[in-house]
Amino acid sequence: KLKTWNHVSLWKWDVDCDICAICRVVVTEPCLKCQSSGKGAADCAVVWGECNHSYHNCCMSRWVATTPRCPLCQQDWVVQRIGT
């Protein structure tokens, strides 16, 4: 007879690099700007480019305002998908 069961689960984005190259924070955590304003991970979406590099959407939005290229591979930045 099973009396207790403690379930623990972990998840991770399916990406080559799970650290935002702009702010250097893991993409599963809020970016530095969202952390400083008290927002949680659910408010800080992850964006993937056609090059398959991922960043916090907040970080990448500011980046492409001045440099419309991927920070890692320098390809023209084209959004493939956005997720939370």
UniProtKB/TrEMBL annotation:
A Gene Ontology term for the protein's cellular component: cytoplasm
One GO BP: proteasome-mediated ubiquitin-dependent protein catabolic process
One Pfam match: zf-rbx1
InterPro entries: RING-box_E3_Ubiquitin_Ligase (IPR051031), Znf_RING (IPR001841), Znf_RING/FYVE/PHD (IPR013083), Znf_RING_H2 (IPR024766)
Domain RING-type: 20-74
Localization: Cytoplasm; Nucleus
Catalytic function, reaction form: S-[NEDD8-protein]-yl-[E2 NEDD8-conjugating enzyme]-L-cysteine + [cullin]-L-lysine = [E2 NEDD8-conjugating enzyme]-L-cysteine + N(6)-[NEDD8-protein]-yl-[cullin]-L-lysine
Keyword Transmembrane: no
Listed EC numbers: 2.3.2.32
Family matches, as Gene3D superfamilies: Zinc/RING finger domain, C3HC4 (zinc finger)
Molecular function (Gene Ontology), one example: NEDD8 ligase activity
UniProt keywords, alphabetically: Cytoplasm, Metal-binding, Nucleus, Ubl conjugation pathway, Zinc, Zinc-finger
UniProt entry tagged with the keyword Secreted: no
Protein family (similarity comment): Belongs to the RING-box family.
Protein name stated in the entry: cullin-RING-type E3 NEDD8 transferase
